[in-house]
Amino acid sequence: MPELGEIRRSKEIGKPGASFWKWWECELCGKQEWKRTILSPKTFRPETKICRPCNIAVQKRGFNYGVHRG
Question: Fewer CB near the last or first residue (10 Å), C or N of the chain?
C-alpha cells in the first residue's frame, strides 16, 4: 500500500492520461485513495480535500463544510 503523500504518474498506477496522482486521505472520513493532482510551481496538491461521497453529503447539508458553530 502506498504511503500518504506519495506521487506517481498515471501509467505507474494503471490510470489513463499523462497526469500525476497523489495518495491522499479525505479530511472528513479518512478514506485513502489515488487522487489526480494539480501541478503548481511549488507543490503537487489534490484537486479537492474531500472525497466524492463526503462532497455529496456536504452539499446535502447546505454547504456548511468548515463552518464552526457554537
Answer: C
**How many domains is the chain partitioned into structurally?**
1
Across the range 17-30, mean pLDDT stands at 88
Torsion sign over Cα 51, 33, 12, 4: positive
Q: 0.70 cut: is pTM over it?
A: no
What range defines the domain where residue 46 resides? 7-60
24, 5 in Cβ contact below 8 A?
A: yes
**Residue 39 to residue 53: CA distance in whole angstroms:** 24
User: What band does 58 get if pLDDT is binned at 50, 70 and 90?
Assistant: confident
